[in-house]
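Problem 12. The chain below contains 60 residues. Write out its predicted structure in token notation.
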Amino acid sequence: DLTAYPLDGFLPTVRYGILLREHKHLSPQAAALIAKLRAELPHGPHNPSSSPAQRIPGSE
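Solution.
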């Protein structure tokens, strides 16, 4: 048997993101993963937990 216990009240909300460097090549596998994530978790009013891309100062 497998039992799941929700830990929402004990653990903080975690946000994940993908960092991409400009003018850098992505492997076909990485590009496919990013496309799959974008299709599954689109940014928009129906998914308020997602956020648009942000430029990080000094990362150029």
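Discussion. Residues 4 and 45 are 29 Å apart (CA to CA). Students who got a different answer should revisit the alignment rule from Section 12.3.
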